Amino acid sequence: MKKHNYSAGPCILPQEVFEKSAAAILDFNHSGLSILEISHRSKDFVAVMDEARALVLELLGLEGKGYQALFMHGGASLEFLMVPCNLMKQDGKAAYLDTGTWANNAIKEAKFFGETVVAASSKEANYSFIPKDFSIPADADYFHCTSNNTIFGTQMKSFPETNVPLVCDMSSDIFSRTIDFSKFDLIYAGAQKNMGPAGATLAVVKEAILGKTGRSIPSMLDYQKHIAAESMYNTPAVFPVYASLLTLQWLKSLGGISAIEKINEQKAALLYTEIDRNPLFKGTANIEDRSNMNATFLLNDEAHAPLFDELWKKAGISGIPGHRSVGGYRASMYNALPLESVQVLVDVMKELETKI
Ligand code: PMP
Which residues hold pyridoxal 5'-phosphate (predicted)? Predict the structure, then answer.
C-alpha cells in the first residue's frame, strides 16, 4: 500500500515523476541507455538542463528579468556560504533574520566572511513566530531571510521592503505559493522538497548583483563561473536534475504556482482547522505565522501518544513525528501531497477523540 507521506524532506513527489524517473533509469529517451550512464555533455542531457533552468524562471515569472537559474551541488547548506562569498564585500557586512535552525546555520557561515548583523530573532520563543518590526542597516551588503522554517512550522507571509539586495532561503516552500519573486536578488533551495530528489540545489541569481565584492572566489563557489558554464562547470547531479525537470513539468501542467497554491491552502486549512477544533491537540506556531507547508502540533496530554501513534500508523501515514527541537508532530504538506492524505490524518485525529 502506498503511504500518506508527510516526510519533511526528502519527501513525496508526484507519482508520475516516480514512474517517468523509473522508466528513464531503464531507457532514457529510447536511447538504449539509462539516464544514470549517459554523459552530462550528451545532447539529450544538455536539453534536460536547459529546459529545467528555463522552466524554473518561467514558473517563478522571472523570464527576461536578468536572472539565471543554476543547478548545483552541496545543498542549501553550501549556499549558506556561497551567498556571503559572492555578495559580502571585503570588510563588508550582511543582515540576517534569525527565524530558526537553518537561518542560524546561514548566519554561522556568513561569519566566516565578515560582520553579520542579526536584524531580529525569535530564538527566545523557540522560533514560534516571525519577527515583524525590525530595521535593516542601509549599508548592509544584503539582507538574508528564510521564507519557511521547516522545523518550527512558521512561514513569512510578507517580505521587507529594502534597498539592499534581498536573499532568501526558500528550500521548503519554493514553487508552493505566488510571491513577487522579482523582489528577490537571490533565491536558493535544496531540491528535496517541492522540486525533486536530494542531490541538486537550485539558485536563482540576478546577474547584476554579482562581481562586486572585491574578493577572490574559489571557482566552485563562484556563481559567475557557474553561469558562464551554463550550470555545467563540473558534472551536475544528472539524475536529480532530470527528476526535478519532471516535477517542474508536472507543476506547469497543473497550471503552475497559482494552481498549486490553491490546493496547498485547502490542505493547510483542513489540517489547521482540526488542530484548533480538536481539544486533544494544539499548534506550536503563532497562528498568523503558520506554515502552509509544515504544520507543527502537539498532543495536550502526552499520555495519548501511544494510541495516536498506533492509529496513524494503521492508517498508512508516514513521517509525522516532529523534529526533536519542537517535539510532537509535524505534518509536511508539500506540493505533491494530495488533499486526500490530509483528510486521512484529520480523520485519525477525530478517531482519537472518540477513543478517549
Ligand atoms: N534551509 C531550510 C529551510 C531547510 O529546510 C533545510 C533542510 N531541511 C536546509 C536549509 C538545509 O538544506 P540541505 O540539507 O539541502 O543543505
Answer: 76-77, 102, 150, 169, 192, 234-235
Which residue among 201, 235, 254 closes a domain?
Answer: 254
Pocket test for ligand 1, best of 99, 168, 172 (most atoms within 8 A of CB): 172
Same domain, 80 and 201: yes
- Mean local confidence (pLDDT), 13-21: 98
Residue 64 carries which side chain, given as an amino acid letter?
G
Produce one character per residue of 303-342: b if its CB has 16 or more CB atoms within 10 Å, e if not: ebeeebeebbeeeebebbebbeebebbbbbbbbbbeeebb
The residue range of the domain holding 296 is 256-354
Q: Is residue 332 in contact with ligand 1, taking CB distance under 6 Å? A: no
Which residues lie closer than 8 Å to 119 by C-beta, 6 or more apart? Answer: 95, 96, 97, 131, 134, 135, 136, 137, 143
Strand partners, 97: 120
| Pair (99, 234) in one structural domain | yes
Give me the pLDDT at residue 296, please: 98
Angle of the 256-277 helix axis to the 238-254 helix axis, nearest 10: 80
In this prediction, residue 1 has a pLDDT band, given cuts at 50, 70 and 90, of: confident
pLDDT digits (tens, 9 = 90+) for 243-266: 999 999 999 999 999 999 999 999
Q: Is the CB of 14 under 6 A from ligand 1?
A: no
- Burial of 212 by CB count in 10 Å (0-12 exposed, 13-18 middle, 19+ buried)? middle
Q: Which of 171, 202, 296 to mutate to test the pocket of ligand 1 (most atoms within 8 A of CB)?
A: 171
Query: Is the distance from the beta carbon of residue 150 to the nearest atom of ligand 1 less than 6 Å?
Result: yes
- 151 in the same domain as 282: no
